[in-house]
Design a protein that fits this description.
The chain starts with a helix and ends with a strand. Helices cover 34% and strands 20% of the residues. Strands 3-2-1-4-5-7-6 form a 7-stranded mixed sheet, with helices on both faces. By secondary structure, it is of the alpha/beta class. It contains 8 helices and 7 strands. It binds S-adenosylmethionine (SAM).
Amino acid sequence: MQDIQNIAEKIRTLSDGEKRFSYTDLTLEEQLARGKPKKYLEAAIELFRALDGKTIVEIGCMRQPMNHPMSELHPKCCNDGHSTVFWCSTGAEVYSVDIDFKAVRIAKKSIREYRNGKVLWTDGLKFLKKFKSRIDLLFLDAWDVLPGTQYAENHLLAYLAAKDKLRDRNIIVIDDTDVGGGGKGRLLLPVLQAEGYDILVSGRQTIALKL
Ligand SMILES: C[S@@+](CC[C@H](N)C(=O)[O-])C[C@H]1O[C@@H](n2cnc3c(N)ncnc32)[C@H](O)[C@@H]1O
C-alpha cells in the first residue's frame, strides 16, 4: 500500500508546467508543444504493477507506427502515444479495440513481438458491453476531440459500459484531457470524482485511481 501511495504522489506532479488549452482547435505548433502521453503511460504502468493488475483494456488503439525504441520521445511521432505497445510491454493481458481497420492493422503489426496482446476490430462501446472479464486498467482514447461531435458523451458512455467489469481497485486513464475544458474527459471526470476516484493528475492525460 505504501508503494501505491508513493507512486500516486509522484503522479500528482506529472502535469506540472504543462500548458492547457481552453479550446480544441490547436495549431500544429500547439500540438507539438503539448504534453506527450509517454510519461503518463509509464506512470500508469507503474501503478498497475503496484496494484498487481492482470488486465488492461484500451479503447482506441495506436494508429501511428513507432519507428524508434520505446525509451525515446519524438514529439512529432509520439503525439498520439503508441499506447498499445506500452500496454503490451507490461506482459499483462491486453485487449485493444478500434473501429478503424487501418489502425487495427498498424497496432497488430506493432505488437507482433508480444504474445499477450489482442487487437480487435470493433466498436468500443459494443466491445465493453459484451466484455466478460475483470478490468484493472481501462484506457479511454477513442472518439477524437472534434468540434460538433459527441466525443465527451461517448467517453462517458464507454466508462458506464465498463463500470461493472472494473475490479474493485482499478485505474482509468483518459487521453486528451488538456484541451477544451477536459476534452475526452469533460463529462467523465466529474462522474469519476463523484464515484470516489482519486484524480491523481489531469493534464495531457488523466490518471484516476480507485482503491
Ligand atoms: C487518438 S487515436 C488513439 C491513439 C492511441 N491510443 C495511441 O496512444 O497511439 C483514436 C482512435 O480511436 C478510434 N475510434 C474512434 N471511434 C471509435 C469507436 N467507436 N470504437 C473504437 N475505436 C474508435 C479511431 O479509429 C482512432 O484510431
